[in-house]
Amino acid sequence: MNLVQQLAQTDRTVVGRELHQFAAKLYPICRSITGNGIRQSLKMIQERIPMEILEVPSGTQVFDWIVPKEWNIKDAFIKDSTGRCVVDFKKCNLHVVNYSTPIRAKLPLSELKKRIHSIPSHPDWIPYRTSYYKEDWGFCLSQTQATSLPEGDYDVCIDSSLSDGHLSYGELYLPGKVKEEVLISCHACHPSLANDNLSGLTVATHLAELLAGKTHQYSYRFLFIPGTIGAITWLSRNREAVTRIRHGLVLTCIGDRGTFHYKQSRQESAEVDRAAAHVLKHTVASSTILPFSPYGYDERQYCSPGFDLPVGCLMRSVWGTFPEYHTSADNLDFLAPESLAESLHVCASIVDVLENNRHYLNLVPFGEPQLGRRGLYPSMGGTAPESELSARLWVLNLSDGNHSLLDIAERSDLPFGLVNATAELLLQNGLLAPVDNDRC
Ligand SMILES: [Zn+2]
To answer: How far is the CA of 288 from the centre of ligand 1 (A)?
Structure first.
């Protein structure tokens, strides 16, 4: 049974609800690129999949970067001159610029304003801001709230710490029949943001659960890492494993109601690029293929020239292009259960293509084999679905040992699942033979 068939055993509405519920559990945690927030999130993922949590000390050199100090935060607030709390970190963790250094001060409004970030075009949303690599502090408020603060002195507190500790990331390795690997990577470093961060985490976790319970050809490696520094850290510590990566996907922003976008790897026509494009064309209503660019999520690191790995990025709405991006409006309501379920289905379909993309040899290549004698050709015109007969003829014709099933699916414009099932049927009927030493 392939992954899509396995997934189809559960009603898609139920799958969507489960994915959304897991995102809702993770949502309140104040994550960052280091610290207890990401650690706690990884532990929650670990309760579902047998993942390792690795800790890399602050100060470790990783290529051109250094693992930063660990950031933790207990509380933060702004109180007005009457002692009333006007901004409370406990109500929304986006209120504090992520990675803010600790501060306790009394400031006049004019000084406080210099530390406040807001979004004038969306006056009720709170922005998400970070200052990872420059020690600084600040608050994020809705524009409505920021402009309504009366003159006066404010009591400002950020009870955070920035000290030597560790960078944490999660890694799950699922051995397959061969050592060659498929990499699935997602970032886990954003605080209460749903589409950007949690959608990838939930879909990747569920995909790992599906794969953990079955035999597969490839080995699979799932990474749950802080963006940028996490990918760089993993790459620097796993030079040998990197050489075994044959296909990879970065999952991000895959839970909103937008249409799918797939950003190609730097190689542009790697097998995973073709598999993703094919699956999207045949399984969803609308999708767009984007060429590689050296900006985006962790595909930037995997596709850096020193590695040039075949790793693409699957998204629904593209990061940075939807107004809710990096704001408090990227919340659980922005995440649609049916979108999460559909994204998981697309990921499973891509895995199925990669797993089954084999080469076969037509054993009766001189003229067409007589399919009717084998019950594979309609004895009366129009009795077999046109696509099934078409698939049989395409698979037979192109199975010369040089064309893979994905080549055949692309050229015939038939769905890979049908082409693969057809190859199985022809194999059972003695018309095809698998090519030895195929792929791996
Ligand atoms: Zn982001």
So the answer is: 21
